[in-house]
Each structure stands twice: as C-alpha cells, then as structure tokens.
C-alpha cells in the first residue's frame, strides 16, 4: 500500500469516527453543580427533573461524581411537537425549566435551583449551578442516622392534577358613580414573551423559582366595559398543573414535595369572557389614589392604571387560581392548609415583555372616587384586579 493511500484511509477513518462525537456534543447539556465556595458537590445526591409537555420527569438521580450530561433531543422533542400544535393558538414555548435538587445525605440539607432550557437550542449547552446547603430541610428525618450512599433518596409522583381553565387575568369593579374599561394586549412585537414561574414547597411556604417563557406569533387583545355598579373581566385559557411527589429513603427520610405551574397557554383565547371564579382569601385592597370625576363620556378626563407595560415599575404580578381548582385539592387532602392562601400564578415583568393590562376609569362630574388594586399578602405582588369606591 502506498503512503498516499494509507494516509487517505487514515483520514477517512478519523472523519467517520468524528461524526458520532460531533452528534453527541451537539445533543448534550452539561450540568456542573458547585457549592458556595465554587467546589463541585461531590458525594451529594442530585436529582434533575425536567418539565415536559406531559408533566415532570426525573432525568437523572444519583450521587454527584462529575458533570452531568443530558440529551437535548430527549428533553426538547416533545416541546417542539407541542409548539407545532399550539402555534395556531398564537403561543410558542421559548424555554422551559429544568430543576436541580441537591441533598446532603448526612444532614438532609436541601437546595433547589432551576435553569432555563431554550426549546430550539443546539448543543453543547453548559450550565453551572451554584447551590447553598446552609439550611436543613424542615422535614429532616430523625431516629436513623444517614450513612452515605445507602441513604440514596427516591422520588415518586403520587398525585397530579392537570386541567385547562379559563383564568381571569384582569377584572374591574365600578361604583354607583363610575364606569370603566379594562383591556389587555399580548404580543405587540416580535420580541414579545409571557412568562410564568414554577412554585414549589416541602409544606412550609411556597418558593417562586423556575420559569416557563412563551412567545406570541401574533398580537392578541381584548377589552371589556364596566357600567355603573358592575364588573368587567379579561380572561385567557391556561393549563394548570399541580403535582405531589413523595421523597423517601431507607434511612428514615419521608417528605412530600408540592409543585404548581402553568404548562401551556392559549393567547388566541384572550377575551372579555368571565373566567372561573377566583380564590380571594389572602388578599388585601391597597388604595392607589383618588379622582374627581368630570363626566363619563369617552372624551372626558379619566384615571388610568397600567400593569406590565413599559411605563410602569411593577416588577411582578399574580393571577388568582380558580376556587373550584383549589377546593378539589382541599377535598382530596392533596394540599397542606398552610399552602392554600398563597397558591398563585406568578408572572414577572422581565419575562412579560410587551404585555400590558390597562384600566381606564371615568366618574360622574363632581364626584370623588377612590381607586384600589388588590395585593397578594404573602409576597406582596399586585393582583390584576381593580375596584372603584364612591
């Protein structure tokens, strides 16, 4: 065999072997988990959970020994198929959360962090996840001392509630001397996004964490009129998912983890239709200001209030969950009583670009009216509900 032929065969072999390597790299997510000092969390248990179209799925669970590799195609293929179906409703998922739960098997100290995975991202994708193990879990097991890997923790899905509901994202209540209009717009530019946070708990209060982010392929808007002593609504279909996981091991750990999130949205369903009744147990009305009316004609001066537009400083807002949804969880004993008042749909301004909710209020000439908005007590987030008194 000539030297040139041998060299050609060698190059062909190298090229052929590099194709699988390239394919593996382009399909890879790498998770590096570090502690407060920047050191890998060797010896800790790590549970990685992906939020997928049909619910959460544990994609890795084990003792951390090195950077964790996940497959992009396995995590995003379902979302890509769903985007093909939901595009006709104007909603396309841009990114979804991946949860990283880190547990010290000696003390059961736990930290949970989230990363946002873009649906259309190609690899390799690298995430460095810093965790803090300073606080022990309130559900720390007693009586049996952990002994390392023999105490590996298992996580089982024991309950799931997955339903489409028409949710009131805004409502306006007028008085005997006032009328008003409420409107909402989503998707006013190509960079529009609408984000909803994941909330989770071990039973001692909700934590607001991971983010779903949707884009809108079109602009959608709706408005509603509230005449004297009446109420107007803006609503939209959302897919609400509530899950309960049982975490346990053979060393005495036995705790439940609760999660609530929005899995899908239907922007095309934005309308002035009244949605499901909302739960209003732990809210308080906050006075926004007063206004002396100069008439209720459309050209008369009015009081205006904005949420989530480019001209306000509201950093986040909450949407109440339907009372029937929560009542079902209570009746089935699937939610701790302490979590009921603060079960909310949480948005934030950073992930809700080009989304606005607008209130306009007119009052009879010479009458002073007072404008209130509702606030969620636990986190202090405003609710997109406004009332007029006077």
- Tally of individual helices: 3
Q: Which class best fits the helix and strand makeup?
A: mainly beta
Strand content: over 45%
The biggest beta sheet reads: 12 strands, mixed
Give the domain tally. 2
Please tell me the overall pLDDT: 84
**Global Rg:** 25 Å
The outline comes out as globular
Low-pLDDT windows of residues: 138-146
State the separation between the terminal residues, measured CA to CA: 99 Å
Helix content: 10-25%
Total beta strand runs: 21
Order of helices and strands: HEEEEHEEEEEEEEEEEEEHEEEE
Keywords: Membrane, Transmembrane, Transmembrane helix
Transmembrane segments: 42-63
Describe the structure.
The protein has about 400 residues and is mainly beta. The chain has two domains: about 30-155, Immunoglobulin-like, CATH 2.60.40; about 165-240 and about 265-390, no CATH class. Helix content is about 10%, strand content about 50%. The chain is built from three helices and 21 strands. The chain has helices spanning about 5-25, 70-85, 325-330, and strands at about 30-35, 45-50, 55-65, 70, 90-105, 110-120, 125-130, 155-175, 180-185, 195-200, 205-215, 220-225, 230-250, 255-265, 285-290, 305, 315-320, 345-350, 355-365, 370-375, 380-390. The strands form four sheets. Strands 2, 3, 5, 6, 8, 10, 11, 13, 14, 15, 20 and 21 form a twelve-stranded mixed sheet that branches. β5 (about 90-105) and β6 form a beta hairpin.
């Amino acid at each position: 065999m000539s030297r040139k032929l041998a060299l050609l065969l060698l190059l062909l072999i190298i090229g052929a072997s590099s194709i699988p390597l390239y394919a593996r790299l382009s399909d890879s997510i790498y998770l590096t988990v570090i502690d407060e000092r920047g050191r890998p969390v060797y010896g800790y248990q790590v549970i990685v959970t992906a939020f997928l179209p049909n619910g959460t799925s544990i994609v890795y669970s084990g003792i951390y020994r090195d950077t964790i590799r996940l497959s992009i195609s396995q995590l995003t293929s379902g979302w890509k198929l769903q985007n093909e179906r939901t595009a006709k409703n104007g909603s396309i998922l841009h990114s979804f959360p991946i949860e990283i739960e880190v547990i010290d098997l000696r003390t059961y100290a736990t930290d949970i962090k989230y990363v946002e995975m873009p649906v259309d991202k190609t690899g390799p994708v690298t995430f460095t996840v810093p965790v803090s193990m300073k606080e022990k879990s309130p559900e720390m097991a007693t009586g049996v001392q952990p002994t390392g890997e023999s105490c590996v923790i298992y996580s089982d899905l024991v309950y799931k509630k997955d339903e489409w509901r028409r949710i009131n994202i805004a409502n306006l209540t007028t008085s005997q001397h006032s009328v008003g209009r409420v409107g909402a717009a989503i998707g006013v530019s190509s960079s529009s996004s609408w984000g909803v946070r994941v909330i989770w708990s071990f039973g001692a209060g909700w934590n607001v964490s991971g983010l779903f982010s949707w884009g809108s392929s079109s602009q959608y808007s709706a408005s509603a009129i509230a005449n004297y002593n009446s109420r107007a609504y803006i609503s939209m279909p959302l897919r609400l998912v509530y899950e309960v996981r049982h975490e346990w091991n053979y060393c005495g750990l036995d705790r439940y983890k609760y999660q609530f999130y929005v899995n899908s949205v239907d922007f095309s369903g934005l309308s002035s239709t009244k949605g499901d009744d909302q739960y209003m147990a732990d809210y308080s009305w906050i006075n926004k200001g007063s206004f002396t009316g100069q008439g209720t004609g459309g050209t008369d001066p009015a009081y205006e209030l904005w949420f989530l537009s480019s001209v306000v400083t509201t950093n986040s807002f909450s949407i109440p969950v339907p009372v029937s949804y929560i009542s079902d969880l209570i009746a089935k004993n699937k939610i701790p009583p302490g979590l009921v008042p603060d079960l909310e749909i949480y948005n934030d301004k950073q992930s809700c670009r080009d989304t606005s909710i607008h209130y306009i209020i007119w009052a009879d000439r010479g009458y002073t009216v007072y404008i209130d908005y509702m606030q969620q007590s636990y986190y202090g987030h405003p609710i997109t509900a406004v009332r007029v008194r006077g």
